[in-house]
Amino acid sequence: MQAPALPRPHRDDVRIAVGGLLGGLALWGFGLGMNSGRLLDGSWLLVPLVAMAALELLRRTRPRFAVVTGTLVLVADQFTQGSLATVLMYTDLMYAAALYGTPAAARRLPVSTGLVTVAVTLGFVAWLRQPEAILIGVATGLVSFGPAATGLLVRGHREAAQAERLRAEQTALLAEMDRAQAVTAERARMARELHDMVANHLSAIAIHSTAALSLDDQDTTRTALKTIRENSVEGLAEMRRLIGILRDAGEDQEPAAAPTLAGLGDLVEQSRTNGLDVGLTTSGDLAGLPAPVELAAYRIVQESLTNALKHAGPGRVTVAVDRTDACVGIRVDSPYGDRGGPRAPGSGAGLVGMRERAALLGGTFEAGPDAPGGEFWRVCARLPLEGVTE
């Protein structure tokens, strides 16, 4: 079985190794050694120098092996004249071991080198019994403890920076998700507004145009065309209002006011013009309601009348709006049965839109027969007033 190949050294590690080796050769060429009178004189210092330079190639890929082996090489270097380049490369190996090693090894390295520094200092002071022995301990600390502590400090800063970058990416991702959700919610709101504003007018146009085409009577056709024109003009006005809001007109132009419950009378009158028999009753003070509640209540009544125009049987449609201290209640009853005349197609989006409007305000919405086998289709909505902002 073939042994796995060693990882390719980083280009910066190659540069450090080559630079350290060339620097050590230059010092040796000038005859600059650190120690004299050692056991191995002359060119023997090149052996630890070359070995330490080779270990520099592993400082990033095998930091633990490099620092352990480098320690043995540094000890061997003490038996030669010694090279400053060898010592400097060893300090770099110690720094790299704390920076690129495992988190546990990085935490243990300053502690172990600190203990070694204290032990060397006390040992040489007890052995030599001279104050100069402290310098040996200082040199040991500069070679081992200093680089290890520096590597751990740099590692901590890098990890903190990485954590901040990750937090920033997560924040940006959450912001993008919030933006996407806001766009989706705004699209849904615009779809509800567009449906509720236009559906009533287009339903009336569809019904009266069908009647005009199916009945060969001049008076009926004229009445239908008049109703079609009125609904077309009002639908275009509503459409222009929405488009004006979307275009965000200049500051000198005030946007058209949203419909309020004060306009329920006009809405009912318009439904009567479209051929619907409608009765309206209100109770409580409908003035001063929060704008979201007032708009939702108006749209629910409007859509209920639109559905009644399209689907209700012959008979009277009743609209009741009741305001209490806690909520606004809406109830619309329309005859349940076959009207026997032209109908406008429906997509079911109206009920979905009314339910969404009530849910956005924390209210309730129900639509269906008033009783099993009942005679009326009933729409009930309750819109709370508490916790709703303007």
Give a structural overview.
The protein is of the alpha+beta class and 390 residues long. Helix content is 62%, strand content 9%. It has helices at residues 11-29, 46-56, 63-77, 84-100, 103-128, 133-214, 218-247, 264-273, 291-311, 349-360; strands at residues 278-283, 317-323, 327-335, 364-369, 376-384. Strands 1-2-3-5-4 form a 5-stranded mixed beta sheet, covered by helices on one side. β2 and β3 form a beta hairpin. α1 packs antiparallel against α4 (84-100). The longest helix has 82 residues, at 133-214. The protein is rod-shaped. Residues 249-253 have low confidence and may be disordered.
Number of strands: 5
Low-confidence stretches: 249-253
Return the structural class: alpha+beta
Major sheet details: 5 strands, mixed
Instruction: Give the percentage of residues in beta strands.
Output: 5-15%
Proportion of helical residues: 55-70%
Strand order of the largest sheet: 1-2-3-5-4
Average pLDDT metric: 83
Please give the count of helices.
Answer: 10
What is this entry, summarized?
By secondary structure, the protein is an alpha+beta fold. It has helices at 11-29, 46-56, 63-77, 84-100, 103-128, 133-214, 218-247, 264-273, 291-311, 349-360; strands spanning 278-283, 317-323, 327-335, 364-369, 376-384.
